[in-house]
């Protein structure tokens, strides 16, 4: 049991009314202050008016410019930046060069502080010159967009661009053109030459953004690249925009494939949060600086910032490789857990007890789910009765029967043996009343007048599921059942505990993780479905054995277990950017978290046109079945009226179930958009605004999707040409323009019909625990002043309603005789649900902050290790550093063997220890009997320098420098991986320190610090023990692609890398054993491997 003093558990109550009565003082105080001092957001927007006017005044000046003159503005802006910052940039470059060349640690620290100060001065100067250029740069981008896209940035979009340039979050409603807005600050900040990043939540949005906005950048003379996940096709991993490139696939029009480094060297780079993060980790695993792909992390705009920086904040990025050996019997455990039974009730009674002759005893049965129709399980009573030693009492809903396991006889509610009789209490036990059951009692009688009745055990089922915490726990009977099936003793005793982690994963995979909701099976592989976007995440795997457990459950090939090689959280990755900004339609509800963790303020940008969408109150139904009947009825009615409908679901499974209901009702004009059909996303979205269209979508419909009433002309034109068999990569421009014009006319006519019918209607089939997700779905309707409406359909069996007392409301409805098809519809219900979401959001914020406290510890250690790796890669003076390590080890060896009186010195042991570091030949065996400790030390240090010079002469200076670099990288990487594993193990059990009244976080920081000091010492020791025996194996070194993957629990991501690291191949120690007569079997092997001699070179 983990007693980690983490965030306070999210509260639940017996009714929604309880949540509704909670008072939240902070919003009320904010509202009161707003009335007194005015709204700070409005004041900030008003302060932008002079800048907006200056940009607008430049419009008439820029319109007469030729394309060449417009492009020349970019060169002029860059010249202004260089002139204003040249001296400061030279100071930074000089300090960086001095820091790289400085071998002394203290001087390096001093230079590092000086460098940080110089960089800050440079950044301040750059921001000052960009502020001066901003009106002209924004006006240039506006004019370029007008010429290339026919789009003109309106004033609200200019305001959004200013907010993003200032390093804040711009909250802009759906349809306000955030993709176009981003071009303004991206262009402006790219003028500095450090690179600017646009971060999206998926590959489709990043690729489409470059293709759409590429003409704007191209006209201005700015290069733009895009990085993609290469999991499906390594050849489609990175591109630059090139309007002259003849693509063979119309999905990649104008995108020229390039090396990843070239995509990052573009002035502006689009990509996903995962790819940016993984490339950072990979860059810190390379063995040559030429293998690095990223530049400095200077400026980034995070699209859908709440999704990436909040929803996915608990999902650390992990690059992993296969463990040395798997050893997990996943398939066997999968079969075992599938035979286990869930229970929905518990028994309040001793595990074993005795009833005197002629007496009786009552046991209390508590039903866990408190939801009618959901109770199941079997109570098994074991006793010493010679006729009925086992009695099974199945419980299902309102039915309870007992059955003699030996005879199979159905005995109703009474079973009688020689001693035992089981009877019902005066209450009708086993009946779970709608709205939740009271406790019920079961009476056990000892009918014998002479013999005592011993109840040896009560079994209630094998495992219990906690739906709120998403945990599954074995009961005592379940543990015994598993032990019998595994044919092992106590699972919690030494020798058997290795089963526990794999058993837990098998249970979670079987019970908590559902196919077509959490993952799908495609081409014989388990592909994870993103919880927040509904998209497939190719190449990612749950770690810690969960993915393997799911593979065994689904009977697909079980891949080898993985080991963490590198990891970082999104929180710590994005905080490394010098300037960070974000944009989304739903950020205000998480403004406090953005400020506390990322120091990002939220500014709400007013809409270009008034919002006229009608958000109708939720309809709450008693059962899920009744809810979906109402959803289908509403779809039928509105679709017949000509309105387009977007239906949001929470899982692939739900979307396909709803599609089946529509089929049975004869509604055929619908499209399903979920993880299984993600390839059709562009086509489906393009037609989702057509009259009468019905689109069923998972959460992916709420992120980066813009549904135009009447449909998208370009999407309609492409689809028409595809059906005609036209190759879009070779289409004649005249044919394309003619078809596009037809599509524009058709879409305009259809838009008039849709607007007259009431616009897009959004149906939510379940409330999400975060208001932002619901608001994202609502936001698909009512864009740019269009009419629209939205409504959520909720049942008391939904997850959120269960957590906040849905069963009590169901009981009330039952007592009032309300039919399940009659909904509860009132604004009070909607506000109660919103208040429940606020509490869950607060809990999740605490949880994310709690995890960040732990990750900050690892982050600081990671920063130091990565700095050391970069120093190794850039320094040409590693020889001095390695000799210092060798001298330190030799001094420690001498001190350990020459402590105390000289008569007690262990000189043979000293020689053996010294020979694990230095290649001391038998003929060179030193004579130390008459020397002092200092003299012995001096002799060894002199020998170390001499042997090093000999080795350098043998290898050659250039080869020796390369060997030094590879050897140090090998030791750092291998021991760092081992350190990460140890930190994971420490983190898993640190919560138990709370038992001793110790703060687990403080204990974690203290022990992690000690472990890091040991890591640094171990690196020095290993380098010292290997350098004299290592040799260089010549082979080409290439960068291997590491495939990322997602991890559960803390929702982590992990992946796989090649089994053979180029490290091991390039710096393998040349095993050179000493004479067997001088080395004991159990002594350290002289080759420096760290193993005992008998397990290493003695074998040869």
Task: Record the SSE blueprint.
Layout: H1 16-21, H2 25-37, H3 40-47, H4 49-62, H5 67-101, H6 105-148, H7 155-165, E1 169-171, H8 178-190, E2 196-200, H9 203-219, E3 224-227, E4 238-241, E5 255-257, H10 260-265, E6 268-272, H11 273-283, E7 299-303, H12 305-311, E8 317-322, H13 330-338, E9 345-348, E10 353-355, E11 360-367, E12 376-383, E13 390-396, E14 399-400, E15 403-404, E16 415-416, E17 420-424, E18 440-446, E19 453-459, E20 463-466, E21 471-474, H14 476-486, H15 498-511, E22 519-522, E23 525-529, E24 536-537, H16 546-553, E25 562-568, H17 570-574, E26 579-584, H18 591-598, E27 602-604, E28 614-615, E29 619-621, H19 624-640, E30 645-648, H20 652-664, E31 670-673, H21 681-687, E32 694-697, H22 713-723, H23 733-757, E33 760-764, H24 771-778, E34 788-795, H25 799-803, H26 806-815, H27 827-874, H28 878-897, H29 907-915, H30 933-955, H31 957-989, H32 1000-1026, H33 1062-1066
Parallel strand pairs: 1-26, 1-27, 2-6, 2-7, 3-6, 7-26, 28-34, 29-34, 30-32, 30-33, 31-32, 33-34
Antiparallel strand pairs: 3-4, 4-5, 8-25, 9-11, 10-19, 11-18, 12-13, 12-19, 13-14, 13-15, 16-17, 17-18, 20-21, 22-23, 23-24
Mean pLDDT value: 78
Outline type: flat
What's the total count of β strands?
34
Strand arrangement, largest sheet?
5-4-3-6-2-7-26-1-27
Supply Rg: 34 Å
The computed structural class is: alpha/beta
What share of residues are in beta strands? 5-15%
Q: Describe the largest sheet.
A: 9 strands, mixed
Oligomerization category of the chains in this entry: single chain
The residue ranges in which pLDDT falls below 50 over 5 or more consecutive positions are 1-25, 369-374, 397-414, 424-438, 1037-1078
